[in-house]
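Aim 2, interim progress: modelling of the magnesium ion-bound target.
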Amino acid sequence: MGKHLAPKTKHELKMNIKKPTRVSEQKSEKKNAAVKLSGLLPNNRLQGLMLVCAFVLLIVVRFLPLDGWMRAAAYAIPLLLAIVDPAADAAAKLRSGTLLNQEVITCLAAVLLFATGLFPEAVLLLVFFRCIKLLEARLVENSLASHAKGLDILPQSVLVLTENGEVRVPPSAVNPGDTIIIRAGERIPLDGVITQGITTVDTASVSGQRSPWAVNVGYKVYSGCRNLTSDIKVRVTRPYAQSTAKKIVRIAENALDFPSGQALYAARYLRYYTPAVLLLSLLIGVALPILKGGWLLHLRRAAVVMIAACGATELYSIPLLYRKALAVSARSGVFAKGEDCFESIARSETMIFDKTGTITEGRYAVTDVYPVKMSERQLLTIAATAESFSRHPIAAAIRDAAGKIDERVIRHIKMKEVPGRGVSAHVGDHQVYVGNAALLEENGIKYNIPSRPGTAVHVSVDNRYCGYILVTDKVRRRSFDALETLRVNGIKKLVLLTGDVLSVARPIASRLNFDMLRAELKPEDKARAVDYLMKNKGGRSTIAFVGEGENSGRIMSGADVGIAMGSLGSDVAMASADVLIMDRDIFKVPRTLSLSKLVYRLSWENMLAGVAAHLLIILFGMLGIISAFAAEVLIFAVCLAILGNTLRIK
Ligand code: ADP
Ligand code: MG
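Predicted structure of the complex, ligand included:
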């Protein structure tokens, strides 16, 4: 879903071609203010007070022994009190060009009720709907506040070390390379590397993970996290605009621009429904009596039908439901790039996992070394030297096993990562290959077939085979439970893709009950596998891809929704995934799925309840078997239930 990216990246262009209707549709609909909840009023005490007064007066007048025009005049007072605000809103919306809005219709219906002698009903209608409006405004405000509170991670100022000592400056004034000081207890303002000090860092505000970790000189720290125990000096690596905290905040803000399909659907529906109901009441209230007479009766029926057009809650509160989902998941360190991401996840029946770093730890360890005509140490040293600059977890394992490599040698390395295969390096005058069988085959080098199962990393120097190193990665303890939870929540097909050898992948796939396994894939094969599954998926269901942020970024853009794990500090993940899980907790995948399903279900529930109440009132109103009062109570109750549903997301 490239549409969540900054515009005009390669992959967005690709996606634009793939899903033209969806993207252009999105653009035109995006302007619909209703979907974005911006039509809601700020909460206002005065309005609340006026409503209470109107209601109390209504009750008082109801029990006064008044007749004729005195009665009408008495009811006019609460009516005026209650109609001021809706009328003001209606006028404002009319001025901005929205002709058939809720407020206009509510006011019209109230006036009609009053004109036909249904005085208390007229007042009650206004009071009810204003009540709902204020309640909803309150809920929206709360959801915005909780979204913003979770994201209170941007720095106000930064303490920079300059020639003149320590100076506080605005974060945008700090450049990469500058050294900043972060006091214990302060939030880390910018991304960088520790140059002095040892401390613990709490990443909860960005990753949702509660356990702080210890960091030392040379470790990376990310903005938005909190420095807990002691003061540190950090060399800034990225300008403020590209810092992790800034990126997260930008993602969270932009997410509001991508409404769910359900909200768009509701908006489209209401665009036709509202004028249709008005037309119907016009027919009943004007056309019928012209033909058959009985003006009062028909006008009253028309007023009842009009009540059915007062939906009151903004689009059945669907945008509010999704807004809350954004806030709830952000609090646990899961950032969706659009409200529609939840919908895609809710509808997914297939989930594809990239093995390394998602269901496995992504932390390899060397288990065995099989050198050819050299010592184990020599083989490890050659491999580790060539892997010096690789960010692959296998490289890290080999470097760990080899120990320290001579700095002077490292300076003479030119290395190229060959994705899904290994590395090709020039160490001094020597050409070194370190990687899987495919890498050696492609370069025409003969290699030994490993006698034991495992991920073999073959090494060659100047086309001479030097042996292989066996590495293993552990399956995460919680993977099994997490995958089972996915199944329980409706995922029908679990697919495992990996570049690793079949002998390693198969036992994992069968132990974790994957439905489909493809091993020994190069990155381009993985992308092709995703395309294949996308082409052959059923009906309206979607496919979610779960990968480790750093090295499956490009592949996941082919699926309906890409979920990246371990996104903290990974630019690739931040740029290409639709949903960012900041830490590596695999349980956040099923948790996001069940949240998505809940929001999706509640949205339908709300819409169905709203539509059902409307249709019932229209039908019974036309036949004259429902009183205005009953219609009002019914729709008020349904609106309350719709709003109540939004409280279930927390
Ligand atoms: P996965 O699908 O498990 O994420 P990758 O696509 O990252 O795997 O890599 C596939 C295979 O390529 C690995 O199992 C390994 O054999 C080989 N490989 C990739 N990068 C390296 C590297 N830097 N060093 C050694 N082997 C590598
Ligand atoms: Mg990988």
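Residues 354-356, 387, 390, 392, 394-395, 420-423, 434-436, 455, 457, 498-500, 551 surround adenosine-5'-diphosphate (ligand 1) (CB under 6 Å). Residues 109 and 307 are 6 Å apart (CA to CA).
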